[in-house]
Amino acid sequence: MAAAAAVTTATVFILLLSSSTSAHNITQILSGFPAFAQYNSLLSQTKVADEINSRQTITVLVLNDTVVNSALKSRPLDALKTLLSVHVLLDYFDSDKLHNLPDGSTTSTTLYQTSGVAPNRDGFVNIADAKGKVSFTSATEGSKTTAFFAREVKAEPYNISVVEISAPIEVSAAAGKGVNLTAAMENAGCKRFAAMVAETGVASDYDGAKGTGLTVFAPRDDAWEAKGMPDWAKVAEEDLQTVLRYHAAPGYYPMATLKGMKGEFATLATGGGRRFGIVPEASGEFLLLETGVDDARVVNTIVDSAPVTVFLLDNVLLPVELFGNSSAHPPSGSPSPLPAPEAPTPPGSPSPPVKQPASSPVPTPPKGPSPAPPAPSEEVPAAAPALAPADDGEPKSRGDRVSVETLPALFFGLVIGVVSMSLF
């Protein structure tokens, strides 16, 4: 009985884990419906698709290409992101639920409300069923009803529902407006960073990237004088400009997009045969940016106005090309070519042999009885992710943090152990 109960409990835990780690892909779902090709493209351009894919229990209200071409095409990207975020409900509504609402109406929270900048009640949508005709209206007082239920496109209870509506849900904040990046950074406690960007002329590089996409990582003021930081007064102006360019990426990367990235991304300092890349590492609600010398935690989002976003950091990002080991990384002004990518090593395969320097020949073993073989090293589970090699061939240390990718393997190991103990 005890063994059976343990097996049943283990099975339930496994099913729960499987459901909690399952994910949907709104881009892939809509790719099967040509009528929503334009809307699907806008979800990708504004990165709202990444936000949708990072959540569960969600309803996406979509518009067909005819409506998109007539009502959305002329709007700026930041206004489109606001509008599309309003069309993502943080609850599950399929056709059956929409036509059987308790008391005939309800109010749902939208993705726009989670941005923290939704004015009035723009972040909520009122849903009402009147004699079988379901309407969707912004919860802001005075909003007019223009959007109605057209059809159910896709339903995966109770994970994701895709519903076509007849027209956009208009909100007061969807007109789009410019953002003063300098003022926003100063208000967030990044006055020194904003001043340095302006004084060194790097602001022109930022301005040049804003039109196609710009992501800025702004360290707070106290980070520049933290322990381990260089004496910035003695850093060459050219290198200081490189550090400031290193704190920006040529692309629009909101939080959900960064968390979904694998491997490093380029910065405005990348070029001339130098990487100047940053590796994002997500762990639950936290996001770390790793440079190979230090790391910084993303504290919050200062600005998210597509195609520009600005994040507040708790530390200054030090590029390994300037502040790494001088023997492994040439100083500024001596660019080295990017190393050729290495082929991935299959799980369980032995590590490649370490190359001996030409000046250090391998010694010939002495004659006589062979010495005792060394004690076997502890076996690394196949599920553990391999560390990406740094430019000097050494693995990048990730400290004592446990990657979220290893959690399912650890959980299954624990469940198997409990079942084994119960059986024996």
Summarize the structure in words.
Residues 23-141, 177-317 form the FAS1 domain. It is found in: Cell membrane. Residues 1-23 form the signal peptide. Residues 332-376 have a biased composition (Pro residues). Among the domains are: 26-165, FAS1 domain; 181-322, FAS1 domain (Roll), CATH 2.30.180.10. Helices cover 29% and strands 18% of the residues. It contains 14 helices and 13 strands. A hairpin with a 4-residue loop joins strand 11 (286-290) and strand 12.
- The geometry reads as elongated
From the N-terminal CA to the C-terminal CA, the straight-line distance is 12 Å
User: What is the tally of helical segments?
Assistant: 14
CATH architecture of the domain at 181-322: Roll
How much is the radius of gyration in Å? 27 Å
According to CATH, the fold-level topology of the domain at 181-322 is: FAS1 domain
Given as residue ranges, the uncertain stretches (5+ residues, pLDDT < 50) are 1-22, 326-407
Residues in helices, as a percent range: 25-40%
- Spatial strand order of the main sheet: 2-1-7-6-5-4-3
CATH superfamily of the domain at 181-322: FAS1 domain
Q: What kind of assembly state do the chains in view correspond to?
A: single chain
* Major sheet description: 7 strands, mixed
Order of helices and strands: HHHHEHHEHEEEEEHHHEHEHEEEEHH
CATH class descriptor of the domain at 181-322: Mainly Beta
Number of strands: 13
Give the mean pLDDT: 79
Helix/strand/pairing category: alpha+beta
- Please state roughly what percent of the residues sit in beta strands, choosing from under 5%, 5-15%, 15-25%, 25-35%, 35-45% or over 45%: 15-25%
